[in-house]
Write a structure and sequence with these properties.
Layout: E1 11-21, E2 27-28, E3 33-34, E4 37-46, E5 51-58, H1 63-73, H2 75-78, H3 86-97, H4 105-125, H5 129-132, E6 140-145, H6 153-165, E7 170-174, H7 180-194, E8 199-203, H8 210-220, E9 227-229, H9 237-246, E10 251-253, H10 260-268, E11 274-275, H11 285-297, H12 308-317, E12 324-327, E13 344-345, E14 348-349, H13 384-391
Parallel strand pairs: 6-7, 6-12, 7-8, 8-9, 9-10, 10-11
Antiparallel strand pairs: 1-4, 2-3, 4-5, 6-14, 13-14
Bound molecules: magnesium ion.
Length: about 400
């Protein structure tokens, strides 16, 4: 290698581990029941003894593939590299893995390494990741997010009363019930509890075709939702643009996009109002920051998907970070993998004091997971047949 390697931060050792962790409360949306999160942890040790921890995850499927991709195809390549250059390592991994796809398992794997190297960079500077990445905001507003399509309107009301009690100024509920009347009953219940001033956000998890989406979202307008998230399949950019022209409800997408180019395509098509990149799915902090800056150039807010403990750092790094997603049952303290209380207080979240990403995982409490063929195959995705039966 011709470039100079900073001796002390030369990567000496990388180990990966996989854990399977059930959500702290039941999760069900229009297309999935989630039985577990899979956490892939990447531990990096440098020649001078410096350490850092990377995190990536799946919603129950593919964790062992992410781990194998790292172990079998990436770790040896990374040994001896300069760990103080996350963007350089990101580009190298991207090129290395690109011929097996531009996103998905590949970017999930890259994220494990990228988040570790950004943790390292921040630890080296003795500051939080949010400050190292720009420190545009000291805290951001958060929203209470629940994966709640199984709740009746009465149960939803009760849940949201707790959200209001805890001081949130915004809450997201699922839509995509078999009938529009059922969705409207949920919106009516939610708006009644949230009152006039709190934001109501909706997530359809790709439930509809464009004509159905236009019909439903226009009917939702009277409840003043602040966004409709993933109304359509993420590949249907033109459909999102059409829907956006036919409704006053802003469009939010991003959790199913994997590259900055995909976000750019949405922006160019006039198909999105709120960008929701997921740090793990876009390949880590390096690409997440590119997407956030791209959003800023188009005068759009960025609202990270999931991983609140890590996302609070990137959201506070940029001026357009707005509404951190705080998923009920998905906080790291709720999952029992970190100590401490909730990240969100009085509806806002701030990065913890201390250096790095500030996530001290308590992994000794968990058994590493080894996937067993057949064990979890049908649990997570509602099959098409089952969904059709539910629809009658
Ligand atoms: Mg969503």
């Amino acid at each position: 290698m011709s470039s100079r390697v900073s001796e002390s931060l030369e990567i000496e050792r990388i180990s990966t581990s996989l854990y399977r962790i059930p959500p702290a409360v039941p999760w069900e949306d229009a297309t999935h029941r989630v039985s577990a999160l899979e956490l892939v942890v990447v531990d990096v040790v440098c020649r001078d003894g410096s350490t850092a921890t990377g995190i990536t995850y799946t919603v129950g499927v593919g964790g062992s593939a992410v781990k194998a991709l790292l172990d079998d195809y990436c770790v040896d390549l990374l040994l001896g590299m300069d760990g103080s250059r996350p963007a350089r390592v990101w580009s190298l991994l991207r090129a290395h893995l690109h011929r097996t796809g531009s996103g998905g398992i590949n970017t999930l794997a890259i994220a494990g390494v990228d988040t570790a190297l950004w943790d390292l960079a921040a630890r080296q500077s003795g500051r939080s990741l949010a400050l190292v990445l720009g420190g545009a905001q000291t805290s951001v507003p958060a929203y209470a997010s629940s994966i709640d399509l199984f709740m009746t309107p009465a149960e939803l009301s009760e849940h949201l009363a707790g959200v209001v009690e805890r001081g949130y100024g915004a809450a997201k509920i699922k839509v995509g019930c078999p009938t529009i009347e059922e969705d409207l009953a949920r919106l009516e219940a939610a708006r009644a509890v949230l009152g006039d001033d709190r934001l109501l956000l909706l997530d359809a998890n790709q439930s509809w075709g464009v004509d159905e989406a236009i019909g439903r979202v226009r009917a939702f307008e009277r409840f003043r939702p602040r966004w409709i998230e993933e109304p359509l399949a993420p590949e249907d950019i033109e459909g999102h643009a059409r829907l956006r022209q036919r409704t006053s409800v802003p469009i939010a997408v991003g959790e199913s996009l994997y590259t900055s180019d995909q976000f750019l395509a949405y922006l160019r098509a006039g198909a999105v109002d709120v960008l929701q990149p997921d740090i793990a799915r876009v390949g880590g902090i390096t690409e997440w920051m590119r997407i956030a800056h791209l959003a800023a150039a188009w005068r759009r807010p960025v609202s990270a998907h999931f991983l609140a403990e890590l996302s609070v750092q990137t959201m506070c790094a940029v001026p357009n970070g707005w509404l951190l997603e705080d998923v009920a049952g998905g906080g790291f303290a709720e999952l029992g993998i970190v100590d401490g209380g909730p990240l969100v207080a009085d509806g806002r979240a701030a990065p913890p004091l201390g250096s790095g990403h500030g996530i001290d995982l308590l992994l000794e409490r968990l058994d590493p997971y080894r996937a067993t063929p057949g064990e979890i195959g049908q649990l997570d995705t509602k099959s098409f047949k089952a969904m059709e039966e539910e629809r009658g």
